[in-house]
Amino acid sequence: MKHIVNKDIMASNGTSLMGYFFATYNEVVAKFGDPIDGCDKTTVEWIVVFEDDTVATIYDWKSASPLFTPDSIYEWHIGGHNIKAVEHITNVMAGIAF
Known about the structure:
Blueprint lengths: L2 E4 L9 E9 H8 L3 E2 L4 E9 L4 E7 L11 E8 L3 H11 L4
């Protein structure tokens, strides 16, 4: 499913934690491009809108490290309006076309 990475933080209004996935920072960048700067409780974030209008966010919640070691595995948070956000993000990370 096609998606765009949205740089407008307003697109993520009303999303909340839906799930998690493990990946390196470099793996996430390879799939979704460069992140936007985080806010008061995150350092980096991606806002992704899929062609079915599902909005998903990927972020590091309250991370102690301002920058990730690019090759270290991290437990990323997935936000959204519903569980479709998790399904879409995990499918993209797994390279599954749907």
